[in-house]
Amino acid sequence: GAGAGHWNAGDRVVLGAGKACGTCPACRFGGGTNTCEDLQVMAFHYDGAWAEYVLTHATTLIAVPDSVPLEHAAVLADAVSTPYGAIDTARLRSAESVGIWGLGGLGTHLVQLTRICGASPIVALDPLPAARERALALGADFALDPTDDDTRARLKEITAGKGLDVAFDCVGHTPSFTQAERALGHRGRLVLVGISPDPLSVGPELHFVRNRHTVIGHTGYRMEHLEDLVELTARGRLDISGSVSAILPLEEVNEAIRRLRDREGNPIRILLRP
């Protein structure tokens, strides 16, 4: 479009999955996408990208160098950038212990990203053996089945009795939330990444307050996060080549959804090519 600034037809770009509402207090003071209080999310508030063409604002674009395949860039804009933003929300520091509940697209990439950020140890939790094996291959130090009776004891053992510094709940259901919160050590932080309508309870107030736990909700990411990830991928620090489970033509969108729903082949992300 005429107002697209320095962008030109044919530029290789990845687009952020949200745009500023333009009316909240942060937007009125010029904050834009990064500080918008009512961020409009693609496919929820406006048309998404399951189409031949997508209309978006020029400020939601990040340049992609020739060394990064566009298929990889497409995955960055969702399943990688959201957990990367969650790490920012957690204020994760190097050598802090991390637990990750749920090893789908978000949790799998959290394993890789927390390792890049220097977390230690990294404990991945999922009831699916294939998901746990994948997490170990991508850098997790331990992989546990959260449904096992001894999981809480194993987490204590792994952290030398201290409990986790940070827990990421990528499931969003009551059992994962409860188990993750109970696994926190003193001043531990629990970041909620997965979303569901389940009610949440931190249990007895004495336990929560005495241990100075923090529960933080997380949604989405900032454009600077997406820019960081393009840089990390271009430099070879982050390898998400294994995250593209399949590429199907747009006409086979229903088949792609079926594979995800049925977990056929334990996919991380399936891409649609117009």
The biggest beta sheet reads:
6 strands, parallel
State the CATH superfamily name.
Medium-chain alcohol dehydrogenases, catalytic domain
Please mark out the parts with pLDDT under 50 across 5 or more consecutive residues, or reply none.
none
Number of domains: 1
The helical percent reads: 25-40%
| Nearest-integer average pLDDT | 92
Assign the structural class, choosing from mainly alpha, mainly beta, alpha/beta, alpha+beta, or little secondary structure.
alpha/beta
**How far from one another are the termini?**
21 Å
How many strands?
Answer: 12
Largest sheet: spatial strand order: 7-6-5-8-9-10
**Overall CATH architecture:** Alpha-Beta Complex
Sheet-strand content, in percent, reads 15-25%
Cα radius of gyration in angstroms? 19 Å
CATH topology: Quinone Oxidoreductase, Chain A, domain 1
CATH class: Alpha Beta
Q: What's the overall geometry? A: globular
Give structural attributes:
two-stranded antiparallel ribbon, 6-stranded parallel β-sheet, alpha/beta, Quinone Oxidoreductase, Chain A, domain 1, 274 residues
Explain how this protein is built.
The protein is an alpha/beta fold and 274 residues long. 33% of the residues lie in helices and 19% in strands. It has a single domain, classed as Medium-chain alcohol dehydrogenases, catalytic domain (Quinone Oxidoreductase, Chain A, domain 1, Alpha-Beta Complex). A six-stranded parallel beta sheet has the order 7-6-5-8-9-10, sandwiched between helices. The radius of gyration is 19 Å and the shape is globular.
